[in-house]
Amino acid sequence: MGPFEFFALAIMMVMIILVVIAKIFTSQRINLMKVQIAQVVHIRQEAYNRLKSAQSQKGVADQGQRMLIDKRNKLVKKIAKLKEEINNMEKDESARKQRTSMRKVDLE
Description:
Layout: H1 3-107
């Protein structure tokens, strides 16, 4: 074995060691990225669940608001009818009083 062969063998051994180190480093980086991806997926799923919950709550709130608006509209109509009925009663009462006063005048 000459000096050239020994030198070539040493370079090949160093290169093999560097390849193994690079492979280990790459494996560790890949594992780290997998962990980070898992974390991002978990965070995304939590955000999605919160969004669904918020949408559900908004739907319930909208339904409640529609129900309250419907009740308000019914009450407004009922109030209008009752006011009209009160006005009619007041007119009838006024007309009855007027007729009563006219009868009193006729009787005198």
